[in-house]
Amino acid sequence: MEKLILHSPSIPTPTPQQQFLFHKSLFSSFKSRTPFHQTSSFLSFISSTRRNPHFQSLSNGDSELVDDEMSFLSLTGKPDRNMALLDDYESDELDLDSDPNHRSGYVALLGKPNVGKSTLANQMVGQKLSIVTDKPQTTRHRILCICSSPDYQMVLYDTPGVLKKEMHKLDSMMMKNVRTAAVNADCVLVVVDACKAPEKIDELLEEGIGDLKDKPPTLLILNKKDLIKPGEVAKKLEWYEKFTDVDEVIPVSAKYGHGIDDVKDWILSKLPHGPAYYPKDIVSEHPERFFVAEIVREKIFMQYRNEIPYVCQVNTVNYKARPDAKDFIQMEILVEKSSQKIILIGREGKALKLLATASRLDIEDFLQKKVYLEIEVKVKENWRQDEALLKNYGYGGQIRVL
Ligand SMILES: Nc1nc2c(ncn2[C@@H]2O[C@H](COP(=O)(O)OP(=O)(O)OP(=O)(O)O)[C@@H](O)[C@H]2O)c(=O)[nH]1
Ligand SMILES: [Mg+2]
């Protein structure tokens, strides 16, 4: 059964200033006061299952991971505001009779790798949903992050960084997911790194929204402003205002939450009036097993160097919730060569043990319960080129749920 990731209804949505002081969980009742930019922990609330309108039953030819009938979370577009969710959420959950001034809509986050898209998405939601590392190409999937207040609901799509060169089928499938993120967006945020020399964003826009007839309003976010002097920020701001075709430029520090208010105000001015798409306490729709695999992937990025993080695919093979015992989670890490497997496991299995421990601690923090974690490393030659496998791993715009 899939589970949704929820805010606790009893915890008020944080103001932007409070966001990076958002607390750990319903269950730990505000024990942790660590700002989320200082912790690697995933902050989340998990509720009991609800059927999701985007879950579809599919069967495809791949034998390795296929259950008899698999469920997939479709990420192809936004639901019809009036129809799709009503079957699944009670109208009072969606607050459909609410204030006619209520606004809601979809926001696509685009940018090159490593500019801080995921950091910004997490900051806006007030929870760590997307993994963040100092290495480029961390995000591989389109991650749905829902940011709600009594007056609005912003449904953000964090996307993989736009690549100049697509090396593998994986890259081209990731880029397709970037493009489709903007298709239904009510507005687009293009993130650039303030530390880098200013550069035109035409290619980025072309990649993200090039095919669209009606161009959505676009905001350029000059991120990491904390790393440069204020005078430099002003110069870069001016350059981007002059040389890019965007509606506005806002400097921010996603890591420290500066400027997030301004970004939200801008988004709000572009969102149409209408009721919420999702109940206000939901912050994402991806299933737990997805986040669990992402946590392991983040730890791989942190522990291993060079090409290793990029050749790893992490799958949750088995996930058994056990009310009276630790949850049982079986993961597999796929690499492309046996030499990579040797590195991943390390001498006498020490590296893998370290990885498993770091992952388990974060998973327990995320799920708010103890788990038994088993990780196996396997070789799957050229998995990054195998379209059927890649689809099965969720790169085709659909994520498998239990
Ligand atoms: N100093 C500073 N660092 C930041 C800021 N925003 C992000 N970072 C750092 O930049 C690095 C990349 O951040 P991510 O959020 O993973 O970047 P991304 O654009 O999602 O990267 P991909 O998923 O690879 O496309 C991480 O080390 C972040 O901590 C910021 O405002 N200030
Ligand atoms: Mg990212």
TrEMBL record:
Main location: plastid
Signal sequence segment: none
Gene Ontology CC annotation, any one: chloroplast nucleoid
Spans annotated as G2: 137-141
Keywords from the named record: GTP-binding, Nucleotide-binding, RNA-binding
Region (G3) location: 158-161
The protein's name: Putative GTP-binding protein Era
GO molecular function: GTP binding; ribosomal small subunit binding; rRNA binding
CDD domains, sorted: Era, KH-II_Era
Superkingdom, natural source: Eukaryota
Domain (Era-type G): residue spans on this chain: 103-273
Native source species: Lupinus albus
